Amino acid sequence: LYRPEGYHQRYLEQDGLPNCYLPRGSLDDDWRNRGIGVPERVSPLELSPTEFRRLGHELVDQISDFLGSLRDRPVTTGETPAEIRALLGRTGLPETGAAPAALLPDTARLLFDHSLFNGHPRFMGYITSSAAPLGMLADLLAAAVNPNVGGWELSPMASEIEAQTVRWVAELVGYPTNCGGLLVSGGNTANFVCFLTGRRAMLGETARTTGLGVTAPLRVYASAGTHTWIQKAADLFGLGTDAIRWIPVAPTCCGSACGRTWPGATGRSW
Ligand SMILES: Cc1ncc(COP(=O)(O)O)c(C=O)c1O
């Protein structure tokens, strides 16, 4: 039997059958030959394929209408927190669940009618990108399989899609395509990975096991325009925010640590 490490014995013993862990092909055949069927187990969150199709089609219709109406909506309604909270109602935790047929469209309407839209053609307030319709469908697809990309065996195709995407991004920016790389959840996490890589490059492998206690105080140089991810990284990875040396940026400067402001930062530790 192929039993993932840590798999709870309770599940193996349930019904006296090895009924709900990862079957490999031959094992699957073996079960079939022995007439052991896949047990039916229904959980409260379960939707039948028919119901999923109906709810999904309705939601996609609702989203399509929303996308079509986006440019005619206000960028934001400008409602107060009290007004928004009143729409949700100030009830306690419900005793019972709600039928998805009502819950989904109602929640969609609340979001469509009471949000600030990054994707509105007149939204110029911040860098957050528009929601991409193709991305919406891709998220749905990814959620349908919900692969655990923590290990290749747990997600063969998703892992390879990730690896191929990394190679393509490398190719796009002229980086060696035999590089490593990861898709992560967003800008902070991406920068954290780079920060940790830099820390390891400067301190070597042992920093991982011995920590930072025995090292000389570390410094991080960043332009004064750097996003707040850097304070979070300095805190999370043990340097402390006092380790950051802010390099002033000229008002007309591009906002990064460019040549005009850099010379003072070299040769000494501020
Ligand atoms: C340079 C930089 N790092 C990190 C972030 C934060 O990204 P996220 O919210 O995806 O973690 C931003 C977002 O503005 C950013 O510009």
Describe it.
There is one protein chain. The chain is mainly α and 270 residues long. Helices cover 43% and strands 3% of the residues. It has helices at residues 9-13, 25-33, 49-69, 81-88, 100-113, 133-145, 156-172, 187-203, 206-210, 229-236, and strands at 220-223, 244-247. It has a two-stranded parallel ribbon with strand order 1-2. The longest helix has 21 residues, at 49-69. The chain is extended, with a radius of gyration of 26 Å.
What oligomeric state is this? Answer: single chain
| Helical content band | 40-55%
From the helix content, strand content and strand pairing, which structural class follows? mainly alpha
Q: Write down the overall mean pLDDT.
A: 84
Low-pLDDT parts are 1-23, 257-270
Please sum up the structure shown:
The protein is an all-alpha fold. It contains 10 helices and 2 strands, in the order αααααααααβαβ. Mean pLDDT is 84; it is low at 1-23 and 257-270.
Give the key terms.
binds pyridoxal-5'-phosphate; mainly alpha; two-stranded parallel ribbon; single chain; disordered N terminus; 270 residues; 3% strand; 10 helices
Secondary structure blueprint with pairings:
Layout lengths: L8 H5 L11 H9 L15 H21 L11 H8 L11 H14 L19 H13 L10 H17 L14 H17 L2 H5 L9 E4 L5 H8 L7 E4 L23
Parallel strand pairs: 1-2
The structure holds pyridoxal-5'-phosphate.
